[in-house]
Amino acid sequence: MTQKEIYQDRGDLAEEPMVIDRQVNGLRMIAAENCAEYEVSLKTEVYALVVNLADQVTIHYNGLKGTLRRNKKVFIKLNDATLAIAGNEKSTYFILAFDHAYIREVGLEDSFSHELLFRDEQNCCLIDHIPAIVGKLMDLKQTSLKNVLMRVYLRAKVSMILCLLLDSLQNNIKSARSKVPADQQEKVLLVKEMIENNLDQNYTISALSKEVGTNEQYLKLNFKKYVGQTIFGYMTACKMNRAKILLKTTDLKISQISQQVGYKHPTHFAGAFKRFFGYIPNMIRCMGFYLADSLELFILGEELLLPF
């Protein structure tokens, strides 16, 4: 007896699971319908937008687990190559993934900052309901275009989706920042500048609050509202991104780089780097990761229709 016949005997006809996978260099769109479980292997340092259109699903990413309710969206920076979604036989969702090279190509690099996108240290953020994004994803799923035309269409639609996404996030940031008093904004910006210009230092919140003349609790609260991250989260992000640049552009030893970003012991630095990026510092040099930003991270492919 087939799966359909079993459901018919129960009086509940279920549609067969289906996945559409469209790929272009640096870009990938997956549409899963009636798919209880799906796991996709992507490259590290890839961003993914997950849009859930049916019952609640569970998302596994970066060694973490989270739930996504019906008609909700989440935006994730993947440090782990695997993204897995688990739901039920009626689960329907989209996964849109793209890399840094694509972001640069469409001219959104300056707008696409970690500070803007992620309001916590888990490299993910929930997205407000934006009907136009779902509409454009449905267009991508339903298009009958092939080969070059499909690839051009995919890039155009995804660029529009990213613009809508960034506009929504920027409006949220403006709203949050408007709630921080002007005098406290100045203090937050001073702390931000101190962190950025002294990455070899490991400031305490007490020291920073005294330096700018404010209360510790006010500083923590207003920094999170204005910047979108905790003070320590922002400090870590600045240190790791600086270390990555030094690994790519200099011949400095790991021990020297770790000192420059405030780590006395290279092993502690390597551990922090791996937690942040998903790979150890040596991989950038030993495996050619210094070229990663310009590599085409996805294989150029045609439309795939995968019934299960």
Structural summary, described in words:
The chain is an alpha+beta fold and 308 residues long. It folds into 2 domains: 3-176 and 298-307, Regulatory protein AraC (Jelly Rolls, Sandwich), CATH 2.60.120.280; 182-277, Homeodomain-like (Arc Repressor Mutant, subunit A, Orthogonal Bundle). It is 45% helix and 20% strand. The protein has helices at residues 3-9, 100-105, 114-117, 131-142, 147-178, 182-197, 205-212, 216-227, 231-249, 254-260, 266-277, 282-286, and strands spanning 18-24, 27-33, 37-41, 46-52, 57-61, 64-68, 72-78, 82-86, 92-98, 124-127, 304-307. It has a 7-stranded antiparallel sheet. Helix 4 (131-142) runs antiparallel to helix 5. The longest helix is centred in the middle third of the chain and has 32 residues, at 147-178.
